Amino acid sequence: MEMFCYQCQETAGNTGCVKAGVCGKKPVTAGLQDALIQVCRGVASAALGSVEGSDDFRAAGRFLTGALFATITNANFDDERLTALIGEGLSLRDRLVKRYGDAVEGGLPGAARWVPGGDLAEAGKKAGVLSTGNEDIRSLRELLIYGLKGIAAYAHHAEILGYEDDAVYASVMKGLDATARDLGADTLTALVLETGKAAVDTMALLDRANTETYGHPRITKIATGVRGNPGILVSGHDLKDLEELLRQTEGTGVDVYTHGEMLPAHSYPAFAKYGHLAGNYGGSWGRQGEGFASFNGPILMTTNCIIPVRDAYRGRIFTTGMAGYPGVEHIPDRRPGGEKDFSKIIELAGHCPSPDRIEDGEVTGGFGHDQVGALAGKIVEAVKAGDIRKFVVMAGCDGRHKDRSYFTEVAENLPKDAVILTAGCAKYRYNKLDLGDIGGIPRVIDAGQCNDSYSLAVTALKLKDAFGLGDVNDLPIAFDIAWYEQKAVAVLLALLALGFKNIRLGPTLPAFLSPNVAGVLVEKFGIMPTGEAAADIEKIMA
Ligand code: SF4
Ligand code: SF3
Prior knowledge:
- By secondary structure, the protein is α/β, with parallel strands linked by helices.
- The protein has helices at 27-47, 55-70, 79-100, 120-126, 135-160, 166-178, 185-214, 239-249, 269-272, 288-295, 343-350, 369-384, 405-413, 453-466, 486-497, 515-525, 533-541; strands at 220-223, 231-235, 255-258, 277-280, 299-301, 317-320, 329-331, 362-365, 390-393, 418-422, 437-438, 441-442, 444-446, 477-482, 503-506, 528-529.
- The protein has a six-stranded parallel sheet with strand order 4-3-2-5-6-7. Strands 13-10-9-14-15-16 form a six-stranded parallel sheet.
């Protein structure tokens, strides 16, 4: 076995990638990511001895959220950057151990003194997933770590906008520390559920960061065609990068297009005001190969999901932030108080042909909780009048698995009195279908990025109040969630923490759930796998 990774939905054979990642991750990269996780454990344990909110505590919190984010599926494939992060983490850990090691409750676990030796990737592999022998403990530890990776991504985005919450950092530290200790299944299960609460808080923090910085999203029609100017395509999830790029391209004659999960940016007042924010180009991350090739201009990957880079656009793709790919130029981070310098990308755009037209329509977005709140009266009326019978939450990720056509089939065949609530790139399976509206309420209500899944939960809670219900599960709502990477794990844990039950999850259940752990989720929360579209629709509408 050259590596072991089973953190995403596309893991080989739904058991684990052992030779190379289906995502393109090489064994060395996998080993380095394992090493980075091990270093993160040590940093977390040592930081727990520091005072919450102190400079050292914050430095650890920031390091952990950034480093965990770098290990999310399709975020960073660059061995040099991973190695640099490991080095940074080891020095931080050793400094924290020296200062606070004695104050750590229960003493420091072995991970805090881990010495990788010469071959980092090999050492990482030894300390990786399979170093835990018991499959249930392994499953719970990994479930915890993947939930924390999602939390880390959200916390990192919030931090970029200047929003931090020490309680979130503390939860990340506590969770990581727990995976380095000899804890039983019950303790780990309780921690997993606690992590769901931390996920809710982190998503609320990011929601505040986004809406206070860029305004509340408003219903917006977004063009999917192209204009005749040269363009830059921005993918990933980072709004700050887009903000700075829009500012720097103003008046240059270069248009900016969004791709994949950047689509919802069009709905924020702070971005909609830019006339050269031209539209959204292409589909979700899985189809970036074709879309990036025909775009003709530079592409900026701000976060996940980057896939193995093709020759067709190798010379014009750039990464920034926690994204990275070997041989791809990386735009360095902004200095405190400064902006990133995108001049090289803008200059390159000026020498590139304009994008090929691949479609010519529009999609509607901008249904954040504030906007839906404004429509609540209308929605409640439509439910009471029997015009809306069910809300079906179909949020989450898209992917390349052939069974994902299930989600298109469900969307197409849901009865006309069902409304789909969505967020994340899962929407690309049905957001360009003409599903119509119910008395002016569109049948696909798109809250935004996976980062905005919180908005859907707030929407559901607002509807619960509007209907005067005591339990969210009494709402006419069903969950049919598509997952791929670890942010979706955090969202799932958040939904469980908020009390939502009977969630369908597909296209497959996570390989990292052992039969016993899956059993607990089924029994306690009614989690179930997606099945045949027609049969599921019947159950959803029942
Ligand atoms: Fe395999 Fe997914 Fe891990 Fe990539 S991230 S190596 S596809 S399990
Ligand atoms: Fe998509 Fe990667 Fe998860 Fe942000 S872009 S939802 S998969």
